Amino acid sequence: PLGRQRAGRLWGPSRSRCGGPAGAMGLELELEPLFQAWSYFRRRKFRQCADICSQLLKRPPGEQAAWSLKTRALTEMVYVDEIDMDQEGIAEMMLDENAIAQVARPGTSLKLPGTSQGGGPSPAVRPVTQSGRPITGFVRPSTQSGRPSTMEQAIKTPRTALTARPITSASGGYVRLGTASMLTNPDGPFINLSRLNLAKYAQKPKLAKALFEYIFHHENDVKNALDLAALATEHAQFKDWWWKVQIGKCYYRLGLYREAEKQFKSALKQQDMVDTILYLAKVYLRLDQPVTALNLFKQGLERFPGEVTLICGIARIYEEMNNISTAAEYYKDVLKQDNTHVEAIACIGSNHFYSDQPEIALRFYRRLLQMGVYNCQLFNNLGLCCFYAQQYDMTLSSFERALFLAENEEETADVWYNLGHVAVGIGDLNLAYQCFKLTLVNNNDYAEAYNNLAVLEMRKGHIEQARALLQTASSLAPHMYEPHFNFAILSEKVGDLQRSYTAAQKSEEAFPGHVDTQQLIKQLKQHFAML
């Protein structure tokens, strides 16, 4: 069979914060520059704010308010929301010592999602990642990848593919984020952390909080941030929930998940906050305890009914556990609370598309277009929906717009691949061949395109080329069943029964419910019995 069409996934907006006023202000003339700096801060013009604060700090004596405001401005320039920022590298995956059970029960682990429990589409219809999860309708840090089963496979995985985890570990990514401090201050660091008396600052709560965020986000010095947070929470007599959350964040960064869990639980007892629930759920997901995370979210919904981030968190977990129908129900609940939620609309749309309801999917994607989402992935999806809903007049124009809006070669490759499917659908195999070739020009690691080119070569009778293409496809994407099955069929036709049987077994392992593979294995066993 041909590989399935891939609907593009929409990128989510990053979360950001707006800060409040930073220091006391009077009506005196000499405080006017500080007022101007504060105004820049409120308008998110952090560079100008930091420059004015630098000039103020040169005057003797240095203003505490200016110091605090500059600290916050520099922090906001590189701020990344810890709740959304989460990527596991190879080091975290393959050297994970926090495994609860090596062989988890079905439906209790994200590492082994197993077969579809919620009646979702099978791998024959909906593409899957390396870990066996269906591809989602929305790109999030946690869905950009599959979990390689072996170290060899993890290292072989192409780095450019959108379904591959980054080669560097998460800590490496944080180090690169931390180097932003060099850019924001060409003269050197604003605060020399090695000479700071943390105990003194811990006794000034207002300054301590700004300083902690600066150390944690801007300097990326988790150890010093943890020391400051520990001293500050001690000074607050362990009654300030905010410091407990920050200590939990530090422990999470350092990989001490159980200690982080204790801090977040303690903070929740003192002050019920949605953010703390999200942090705690993140800890449970990293410990591979999705059921505990689900229960936590549901308890949170009892205290914060209708909270969109909690409902969305439940939907994401069900989707990752391959329970597509339940996930879709929760995404619909999200839309009842917030009818402009891009992630929910995109996921429901992709679910309808893969459930053979392109007309309904078209309505959801059109809604995104009306909301102002205007990117390559959306027009790619609109083109596919139009084609399968038999609205041929709009198909090619949507794909043309998608090609025009493509920002990188991977996106261009996706569009050409889908155009190849359209060409196969209208029976123009020469056009399909050209489209799949153009896919590989843009992305040389596109396993589905290799598989489909092999099918076209088989139709032309070019057996050796087809075999080489299928071997490339199966090595690039061992989690796909199509290259293995096609290779098994091809080998059986030329009489190479042993290779055919090996490939058929791999196909069955990738997709246990595939009837054609089971019939082929049965035939081959009969051949072997006769020998």
UniProtKB/TrEMBL annotation:
Keyword presence, Acetylation: no
Region described as Disordered: 113-154
Highest taxon of source: Eukaryota
Annotated InterPro entries: BBS8, TPR-like_helical_dom_sf, TPR_rpt
Keywords, alphabetical: TPR repeat
UniProt GO cellular component terms: BBSome; ciliary basal body; non-motile cilium
Biased composition (Polar residues): 141-152
Gene Ontology biological process: non-motile cilium assembly
Cited Pfam families: TPR_8
TPR-type repeats, residues: 447-480
PANTHER family in the record: TETRATRICOPEPTIDE REPEAT PROTEIN 8
UniProt name for this protein: TTC8 protein
Organism phylogeny: Eukaryota, Metazoa, Chordata, Craniata, Vertebrata
